[in-house]
Amino acid sequence: MAKVxxxxxxxxxxxxxxxxxxxxxxxxxxxxxxxxxxxxxxVVLTSNVEASYDDTRTIIAVNEENIEESLxxxxxxxxxxxxFDNLIIGIDxxxxxxxxxxxxxxxxxxxxxxxxxxxTAFLEKLFTLCPAKxxxxxxxxxxxxxxxxxxxxxxxxxLFPETYIxxxxxxxxLSPYVKECSLPSDVKAAYNIALSKGVPLxxxxxxxxxxxxxxxxxx
Length: 219
What we know:
Blueprint: E1 4-7, H1 11-23, E2 28-30, E3 43-47, E4 58-62, H2 67-79, E5 84-92, E6 97-103, E7 106-113, H3 116-129, E8 132-140, H4 145-157, E9 163-168, H5 176-180, H6 185-194, E10 199-201, H7 203-211
Helix pairs in contact: 3-4, 4-7
């Protein structure tokens, strides 16, 4: 039985929540406010107005502005955690930047960005909303100028040593699991990068790559 329930009379909010859960393959049931919550349910997503519902389970108040944050809270609650052990970001650099975020192995973001600045703004928000003991950003070694631009933007926000950057060879074949996923090619590439161990970069090396002092190699 599903461990997540959506309980709201707000049709737009219900649509936004249910779409997000479906995108991340999280099973859920729908409950009418005021009715009993089945015993198997651990997490209930509802509106701010309806969140006063008195229950021993985790009640998450959702509005249109904090939809993504609610997803992180759901995954944490299902895993019985207040903080993830590992948050791994996979990035496929290029004119379109594919991005995948894995929280203890669970996908919590599958996105495409068209600028490095917007991507790093998203990461700053993600790091705030999704606390983790260890953060790793794995970046594909292709993309050349796009990779340098990305490293430049990341250098402005990354706090070492809490966050590590790894350069991952893009010559690696797609894993069978990723190959079967119904995702855009840029996101698939980012997913594969997130699952692949890379070469760690120091803050000094990030700056050298960004400024063209060191050559980027596809190991």
